[in-house]
Amino acid sequence: MPKSKRQPLSTEAQTFKRFLISAISFVACMSSIVYLNLLVTPSEIQEAAALISLALAVPSGSFALYCYIKLMLTRFNHFFKR
Question: Quick one: pLDDT at residue 1?
């Protein structure tokens, strides 16, 4: 059976894929902070793990926001061109 060639994704699809990945990583980092505070006894290890999660959540959240705004502007531009 021959392999079918995949079509390259459009710019909007690539942006949505990046938004989805960064939003999922943001939610995972923020939920790990919550679970660390609820389930782990207060210690330096808990604080270090929460700080690492927060350090990973900031760039992923800002990139998700950037991709969301880019998607919104692309859709508005497509809407107004019609």
Answer: 59
